[in-house]
Amino acid sequence: MSRIGKLPVAVPSGVDVAIDGHTVKVKGPKGELVRTFHGAIEIARENGSVAVKRRDDSPTSRALHGLSRTLLANMVQGVTQGYIKDLEISGTGYRAQLAGKKLQLALGFSHPVEIDPPQGISFAVETPQRVRVSGIDKEVVGEIAAKIRALRVPDPYKAKGVKYAGEVIRRKAGKAGKVGAKGAGAA
Q: Cα–Cα–Cα angle for 130, 84, 72, nearest 5°?
């Protein structure tokens, strides 16, 4: 039995979980999320919580058990608290700003990069070097943050680019200078 899969998902007050076959709809103060789960997984309400069970012990069911429970728990947390990913921009002239709801990034290209937020995602620019991606769907928040980071991945020499807040960039040493005086290489 999956250690994670057998734990019930607590449903806080103010959150409504509707189960229709394999489709689960979670509605809370921040919004509504809908997901269809695999047929090998059964989801049922039990005393103020939701239980996730597998139908049999096939490898597919065993693999999906803990995953399905975690996805359901993420949906409940998303509609109650939401998810946030912070990004940091470093480099001379690199900056971010909001133009309406669009995020405009100056990342050393000949043109600014504009990103439209998908449904349910919002951007906040705390400083020109800090961007916050927030929303209720954990997967979409992470995907948009990864797409922004992929526009200019931090290089290992000067660490210029877009990185996650708290991410450590392993730095490399640059070219070593010439050793010795002029003509030291000729013997």
A: 165
- What does the pLDDT look like over 33-69, one tens digit per residue? 999 999 889 999 988 899 999 999 899 888 899 999 9
Q: What is the pTM of this model?
A: 0.84
The span from the CA of 19 to the CA of 27, in Å, is 12
The first and second tokens of residue 71, run together, are 């996805």
Q: How many helices (H) and strands (E) does the chain have?
A: 2, 13
- List CB contacts of 132: < 8 A, sequence separation 6 or more: 84, 85, 86, 87, 123, 124, 125, 126
What is d(CA 151, CA 161) in angstroms, rounded to the nearest whole number?
8
Listed in sequence order, the DSSP H helices in the chain are: 59-80, 138-151
Which pair of tokens denotes residue 125? 């620019």
CA distance 56 to 162: 45
DSSP state of 38: P
Q: CB 156: neighbour CB atoms within 10 A?
A: 11
Q: How many CB atoms lie within 10 A of CB 58?
A: 11
Name residue, tokens 């992929």.
150
Report CA-CA distances (Å) from 2 to 53, 73, 90.
Answer: 10, 15, 42
Closest CA to 7 of 45, 39, 51: 51
Give the integer Cα–Cα distance in Å for 126 and 119. Answer: 21
